[in-house]
Amino acid sequence: MLVLSMMLVLVGCNSATQKDEAEQSKKETNEDKFLNKVDEHYAYEFAKSLEQFKTNDKLGYRTAGSEAELQTGEHIQKEMKKLGLQEVTKDEITVDSWTFEKADLTFKNTKDAKEVAVLGGYQINFDTKGSKEFEIVYANRGTAKDLENLDVKGKLVLIDINQREDWWINYPSYQAHLKGAAAVIAVQNGGYAEVDDSALNAQDICGPDDAPAFSMSRKNAKELKKVLKANNNSVKVSLDAKSTVKMDQPTYNYYGKIEGTNKESYILLSAHYDSYFDGFQDDNSAIGLMLGIAKAMKETGYKPEKTIIFNALAAEEWGVSNTRYDWSTGAFNQIFNVHPEWAKQTFANINFELPAFEHMDANEIRSVYEFKDFLTDFATTVPKVNGIYKDGIKVVTPLQTWSDDFSFSIAGIPAIRNDFQDSQFMHTHYHSQYDDQETYNKKVMKYHMNMYGTLAMQYDKQAVTPLHFTTRLDEMQKTIDKKVNGQSDELEKAIAQTKELAVANDKKVDEVNASYKKAYEAGDMKEAQKILTDHKVLNDQLLATFKQAQDDLVRLTWEDEVIFPHEHAQNNITNLSNAITVLKAGKVTKALDDSLYLIDNNWYAYDFEKEVYDYFTNYVTDQPTDRLMWGAGRIVGHEDLYDVIHSLQSKKDGDDVKTEIASLEKALETQKVLLKKTNNEEIQSLEKLQQLLKAK
């Protein structure tokens, strides 16, 4: 009897234990399982593994179409298969390739000892075929005035540059090229590579491959300048360099999937695998993070409703020669040329950049306008981590052109990325040899893996893509300057009419997604599937509306900032009017210093020859779309003030400037006509959006 009682107790205990375990299992969500499997050490180790592939033994570099980039891609493909991703695919794209093997400059310092400066590279063709002797001269900032009385033919030209405050490398390098220089050697004088005087910098050159440029550290330049000063600004140096650009070469994007119940509806995660130097943050860590998310999802057996695509992209840093829009080549090709069908099937893109560093006190998510509300709500569910991001999560808009997410968004895929562009890191470490493992923050990596992995799962719980068009319309309204814009009433009326429909649309989207999420989390997949089926047309229309907004309402300044179309002429009218007013008061200097440089790309008219100015204007306005890629059709217009500016530069306050005022007044009338045209086009675009919103 005692034995029987004990057996009954044991059976009862086992039943209770099993019941408790079942209850516990039931309570554990997919997110919980995912978070328990996140392994930031895996992400870190895989990020490090990418550093083995390089074109330059001393500095790294894994660049578009190079052997190092090709090897890295194969390495990532192998890892995707190892993780168990499905349909691992290698997509060929065409880029202009760049292989930077070396650039070592040797000179005798002030102590008559040999000093070797290892130089950074830009995307140019230059081969000394071994060590070659050159004469080198110093040319201040490399402007037309700096080179005017300097013989640079066949010589190396050392210049100081601040690419953040002044101009990009293409302007002084092309100016020197026109004067017959062998190459420019640029020294960062603030803006980038501020971390240390030994830091080099690399950027996309945005210019032709036959106007060579290299990068030198401030440390080496300081010593070289001393030697130049002691020798009447001319000394002999030897340079051993090889940099090769080839047009129309193959490289590859890679992707793998976790297939969902719906094989034709996607959530797209992306990161690029090319780099300058070792590129530990930019973008090794992003590849590590993305594959780390895939690994955790696979290990938990996560079975999504939508198919999740993990896309490793080539040629983000640069991939097309001699165009202003020479970056994000891999992503642009992927979505516009290789898989354009993804645009109509993808709920969202999450793009990763420099993700293992605490860039700011707030963890910023940069987003298209339409996702701001959804992401703001999501941010409240993400637990804080002690020691990082004391100001929590902040959603910022709009997307900017710095990274691959912009290419995806203009194709019609609502996109976001972890933000970095306003970080001090951009001034100090970015695109330098100091972007290395020392910058790694374990807590930040884990936090981002947790946050963006669960965000992908939240997207998976939406029946329709959670777009709120009211956000874009509100921002558009804010940019109208009634003092300048004569059609502001008509434009505001069109915005208000569109917003009325958008408010109802936002409400419907939220209701549908709340119903779907409730059924999904309750395990009622029959009801969840019915909601999906019933609202497929709504989701298709949402994506079509988003694409229409991207086509018609996303434009760029001449400095690549995202604006609404009317802002272009508004800005020009404001600054032309201000310049005319102060010139009529005899204030020439004020017009030049406060207003004229803010009109289109006329900043460059101040310091470079007309041929340089025209070259970098025309390659935006006149190039075919395949060279302009994501920038094609995004510039609203151009007002050429070169002659006016140069004429004013030759005058002083109080001089006769009637001719210049007349030219500016003519330009002002042109901009007023352009603004009217742009307003009318925007009103028509809003009417199109109204029709699409009504269809829902």
UniProtKB/TrEMBL annotation:
The keyword rRNA-binding does not apply. Transmembrane segments: none annotated. It comes from the Bacteria. The keyword Glycoprotein does not apply. Keywords: Aminopeptidase, Coiled coil, Hydrolase, Protease. One of its GO terms (molecular function) is aminopeptidase activity. InterPro entries: PA_dom_sf, PA_domain, Peptidase_M28, Peptidase_M28B. Residues 253-449 form the Peptidase M28 domain. Residues 136-224 form the PA domain. Residues 661-696 form a coiled coil. Pfam families: PA, Peptidase_M28. PANTHER family: N-ACETYLATED-ALPHA-LINKED ACIDIC DIPEPTIDASE (PTHR10404), VACUOLAR PROTEIN SORTING-ASSOCIATED PROTEIN 70 (PTHR10404:SF46). This is Predicted aminopeptidase, Iap family. It comes from Kurthia zopfii. The lineage of its organism: Bacteria, Bacillati, Bacillota, Bacilli, Bacillales.
